[in-house]
From TrEMBL:
<dbReference type="InterPro" id="IPR012349">
    <property type="entry name" value="Split_barrel_FMN-bd"/>
</dbReference>
<protein>
    <submittedName>
        <fullName>Pyridoxamine 5'-phosphate oxidase family protein</fullName>
    </submittedName>
</protein>
<dbReference type="InterPro" id="IPR011576">
    <property type="entry name" value="Pyridox_Oxase_N"/>
</dbReference>
<feature type="domain" description="Pyridoxamine 5'-phosphate oxidase N-terminal">
    <location>
        <begin position="25"/>
        <end position="131"/>
    </location>
</feature>
<dbReference type="Pfam" id="PF01243">
    <property type="entry name" value="PNPOx_N"/>
</dbReference>
Length: 150
């Protein structure tokens, strides 16, 4: 028997906690012709956007640069926040040093160091859904058009 469904306000608090404390997300992108691709990547949340980094010439890097859209899965399948977002693409040296240092400290990886050219990708959430079990499917939408609904 599953627990009683959380309120939407609690789901928002839980999602914001995950954004502030988790380190990894599943990043789903698609090529310009619609071929899907999904990878786990580390991220940093600054209260406004998720910052991720991946090689510029990787399938994810190419997809995000081409389409400027992404879907991110945060958490496990029985406690997930799904984030659809718009993507800003930044060259690796375009981010303020302090922000890159924060990413490196949080994730344990500094994408400015490898010889392989990386890019930064800032994901601005446009839609967020959160649920645990089927009893939380109603009311799972917490953000629409970049604005919190609760």
């Amino acid at each position: 028997m599953s627990a009683a469904p959380r309120s939407r306000a609690q789901r928002r608090r839980d999602t914001e906690h995950r954004l502030a404390h988790d380190i990894d997300v599943w990043v789903a992108s698609a090529s310009a012709d619609g071929a899907p691709y999904m990878v786990p990547l580390s991220f940093d949340w600054d209260g406004e956007s998720l910052l991720i980094a991946t090689p510029a010439d990787s399938p994810t890097g190419r997809n995000l640069a081409a389409t400027r859209t992404v879907r991110v899965g945060l958490g496990g399948t029985r406690d997930v926040s799904m984030i659809e977002g718009e993507v800003d693409v930044l060259e690796i040296d375009a981010l303020p040093r302090e922000r890159g240092d924060r990413f490196a400290a949080r994730t344990g990886f500094d994408p400015r160091a490898p010889a392989t050219p990386y890019r930064w990708f800032r994901v601005f959430p446009r839609r967020i859904q959160a649920w645990r079990e089927v009893n939380e499917m109603p009311g799972r939408e917490l953000m629409r058009d970049g604005r919190w609904l609760v």
